[in-house]
Amino acid sequence: MRQSTLFHNTLRESPSDAEAVSHQLMLRAGFIRQLAAGIYTYMPLGRRVLRKVEQIVRAEMERAGAQELLMPAMQPTELWKESGRYAQYGPELIRLRDRHDREFALGPTHEEVITSLVKNEINSYRRLPVTLYQIQTKFRDERRPRFGLLRGREFLMKDAYSFDIDWEGLDKSYWNMFEAYNRIFTTLGINFRAVEADGGTIGGEGGTHEFMALADVGEDTIVVCTCCDYAANLEKAESGAIDVEEDDMISTDEIRDLEKFYTPDIRSIEQLGEALQINPIDIIKTVVFKADDNLIAVAVRGDHEINEIKVKNYLGAQDISIADSESLAKIPGIVAGFIGPMDLPFPVLVDHTVANMTSGIAGANELNYHVRNLNPIRDIELTHVGDFRNVNEGESCPRCTEGRLTFYRGIELGHVFKLGTKYSEQLSANFIDPSGKEKTLIMGCYGIGISRILSAVIEQHHDDKGVTWPITLAPFHVHLIPISIKDDKQMELAQKLYHLLLEQGIEVLLDDRDERPGVKFKDSDLIGIPIRIVIGKDAEQEHVEFTLRKHNMKESVHVQEAFARIIDLVKRSH
Length: 574
What we know:
Blueprint: H1 21-28, E1 32-36, E2 39-42, H2 44-63, E3 67-68, E4 74-76, H3 77-83, H4 86-89, E5 94-97, E6 103-106, H5 111-121, E7 130-139, E8 154-164, H6 167-187, E9 192-196, E10 208-214, E11 220-225, E12 231-233, E13 259-262, H7 269-276, E14 284-291, E15 294-301, H8 308-315, E16 320-322, H9 325-329, E17 348-351, H10 352-355, E18 360-366, E19 369-374, H11 376-379, E20 384-386, E21 405-420, H12 422-426, E22 430-432, E23 438-440, E24 442-449, H13 450-460, E25 478-482, H14 488-503, E26 508-510, H15 517-527, E27 531-535, E28 543-548, E29 553-558, H16 559-573
Parallel strand pairs: 3-7, 15-17, 17-20, 25-26, 25-27
Antiparallel strand pairs: 1-2, 4-6, 5-6, 7-8, 8-24, 9-10, 10-21, 11-12, 11-21, 13-19, 14-15, 14-16, 18-19, 21-24, 22-23, 27-28, 28-29
Subcellular location: Cytoplasm
Domain Aminoacyl-transfer RNA synthetases class-II family profile: 38-470
GO molecular function, one term: ligase activity
């Protein structure tokens, strides 16, 4: 490709609304252009990278035995109502009506569509197992699109679905796809971790893992053990036994009577700890939630945060949110800021760490009063005891005795689910087994955010000058830059090398623009093509400047040596 004909412009400054480095660089380097919030055009350079991601994903899907198809983006909402997800997705589901007033949705995912398709195409165990996948545009009406391609309203996704006759078959399909994902993200050159995760609105009956790219801009917190291979999303993470220093605890030589005491205008854990000169581990924090249409309370230790996902899963609720002050004001004996876990008129979910306390301080359910000497076994109804909190960094690992939990930020790139019969049962997707009995299909679901990968790679592969693409994903392998297109010797050598490389299948961008060298080099740094060949004053001796963009290594070599190095580097990368 000759750069003079490339549909491409670079920007010298980052747009003011671009927060993430990847968003800034993709705009500045001319990979994408914004049409509306969360909606982007992929410019020719960006589309070339996107196609390479697709090629890598397709190769591994084929290797894993999956077959590609393409399903409609527009889906009848009757399917979503039949599966029970129509209300769950809420405003994120983009709905529209056709001229006959029939309601459709722009697909954010395709579990309902694929289940309906397979239901009508397969009715015998003889045609199972099967795994089907597609690469297609998805739509979600995000409340706050941000970080460019990391959280958009229109995005490209690979979604695959497996169908098996039993759970043993699903287990094989799941781990087969799990290994394919490991190969994909390794080939893409991404520093990633596979972590245990929550199923979210896609749900399921079995295990689920997320594949997370490690990056400071990531919106997810990853919990990793320092010794073993335990890794989980914060929503799912657990800890081992919690070590508490005796100096941090209230003396509990004996269990004393519950005592109410005056705490005027002290409503927060921080205020209470400061006023009483005590550690938050001695305080019981109680928060009231609305779970679907019911009120519940959750009690955790003062130094812990409530994990709403764990609470939601324990209750089997569709929706959960902190109860508003108006709802609380209608309940006798409930005062915001002074809520305790005793004698509440609704269920109390008690975290393990609270249930194991000997004595604690909590709200008295009375304005300006707290209680001390609260003994959970004596004073709280321990009907619902479980893990309802976020782990803290530094706690012990739940899988090994030596490790400690450490936190990282991550970008979710892929998610694999054991769906079981969640969708096949709702949509009556059945098959006839070898004994002639009708059984429900067992499903798995496997997604990769194709367009999101561009952002994740750039977050991990950039410097202060621009992008530093891995050679497997770069829009071109080589950036060929003659210093002056008016110099016949330079252009003659540039044209010769250009055609030699093209004949070997090397992707080359020849900068034949009539621009100053400084402009060419700045654009080249921004775009981030991994190999740069500069042809200048030594063109007559057929010497060129060979540079590896990522390492900024510059060396004067003969053109034949440069040619050989390029062939070797590209060959080794594939």
